Structures are given as C-alpha cells and as structure tokens.
Amino acid sequence: MMRFLRAFASDRRGLAAMEFAFIAPIVAVMLVVGVDGWLRETHMSQMRTATHTGVRYYQTGGSDDPTAQAVSAAAWSGMPANGALNVVRSCTCGSSAVSCATVCAGSNPPSVFLTLTASGTYSGLMHSHALSQSDVIRVR
Questions:
Q1: Assessment of whether the complete model's pTM goes beyond 0.85
Q2: Side by side, which strands form the sheet with 128-138?
Q3: What domain range is 118 assigned to?
Q4: How does DSSP assign 22-90, residue by residue?
Q5: What's the number of domains the chain is made of?
Q6: pLDDT of 50-70, one tens digit each?
C-alpha cells in the first residue's frame, strides 16, 4: 500500500492540466472585467468628444444653442438609444444669477455661461452604468 501511495505522490502527469483548471477561470474573469472597463471608457470618451465639439462650436463664433446641440449630437459616435445632449444658458451679474436680458450695473451686459451636458446609459457586459459628461464655457 505504501508503495502505491509513494508512486501516486511522485506522479506529475496531469499537473499542468490541474494548474490550468485553477488559473483559467481567474484569467477569464479578469479579461471580461477588463473589456467591460475598456468599453465603458470608450463610451465616456465619445461623450467627451461630443461636448468638446459643442464647446468648439461656440469658441469659433457660433451662438445658436440648437445648432450647438445638433453639432454635438453629430459628433457623438455610438450614442445610446437613451442618449441626450442638453445646452443650458445661464447669466450672471457679478456672483448673482440673473436673466440673460438683464443689464448689469454700469450698463454692462451679464456674463453668459453655457453648460453642455451629454448623458446616457452604457449597457456593459456585466451590468449597465448611467454616464454623464458636462462642459461649461463662458461666451461673454
């Protein structure tokens, strides 16, 4: 009986298969998590590109909010079905929020800020994430 146990203990056949059986599931999980993270970051990058394109529209002299929204939407490749782009205009006199039609003290026009926001849901390999990206630009 002892001779059989020694022979069994010293037998190394199949050791590589056993090691592979232990390691393969861990490598597979790491691969899926890595690909899911990469895809999520790709979607975030596409959203950033869309909002940056809208900002560049204003920086190059554009002033129409619906056009900025359309330009941003056109730049968003891979926009999810529930993807949304919003342009919100806000005005301030000093540190006070005011209507954009208001004239500030000293007959100065108010400072105008535009907030471009892209939002959508990324449906990943494992679960879904709500993503959002915002850029603010001062145009006056």
A1: no
A2: 96-98, 84-93, 111-123, 128-138
A3: 2-138
A4: HHHHHHHHHHHHHHHHHHHHHHHHHHHHHHHHHHHHHHTT---HHHHHHHHHHH-TT--TT-EEEEEEE
A5: 1
A6: 999 999 999 998 888 899 999
